[in-house]
Amino acid sequence: MEFNDNFILGCSAIGAGLAVIAGIGPGVGQGIAAGHAAAAVGRNPGAKGDVTSTMLLGQAVAETTGLYGLLIAMLLLFVKPLLNK
Amino acid sequence: MNYGIMLADASKIDFMIHGIFKYNFFGHEVWITTTHVCLLIVMLILIIFAVIVNRCLAKAKEEPEGVQNVAEMIVEMLDGMVDKSMGKAAPKFYNYIGTIFIFILFSNISGLLGLRPPTADYGVTLPLGILTFILIHFNTWAHNKPKDIWKDKCSPLPPWLPIWLPINIISDVAVPISLSLRLFANVLSGTVMMALVYGLLGWIATGWPAALHVYFDLFSGAIQTYVFCMLTMTYVSNARGDA
To answer: ipTM of this model?
Structure first.
């Protein structure tokens, strides 16, 4: 089946937009992590440094799934793998 | 026809890797790209810094001053980080972790110098992930008996029923891929964001993008460097079995 190039590019753009919806998950996860870290610092202000570094490490790992979505979006927009050259 | 990503002049947006010149390497076409050049610049900066520190440390004094102070501070910080997460295995890994920390940090913040960060190329981060992978498995085999490794690879089920083995192997292979993709995608997203700001806004983008540079280059770069080294150390000390 043959498709118009413009049709494929438009669908790629829609797909890229859908792919970055993956950002919702990490957003919620990082928020939960930051909230618990804030609670932990409130309970034990002396451990602020340790809590902060643990929180940042956990958040950066949680961010990965969102970045996979971003990567797919970038591939669709800039590498254009669906276009038959 | 220009398939721009926006209605504005999309030809000004530039964050791709460019080839500089190509040559034939045993029948393959090999390109020297901007990544190589930026890597060389980063390495030159690090080498010059190392030579200066070496000259200064040749006449080191009991009370540190000047360059010696800075060098001791950096080394103490890196060694302290390794000490904290690797315990008694730490002295063997001071050199490796310190080296990759400084290298990735300088690569990430080289966007401040107007370079395209070398870590925004998957060809740079994948080897780093593969190095971690090799380190993990070397330490696993050097510090554990083959029987225990087999038992661990079949882990939720008993060792005579290796149904779970493929899943465990897949999760082992996923480690370097996720490590390298995390670093790559973070730095790339910063690079793309800065390219969009500079490419689409034109003269409006004067001065204030400095704040964005602080976030995307300095903060994000430093965090990702820390995360990469931290995860490498955690995996390796888990593999050694003496966390």
So the answer is: 0.82
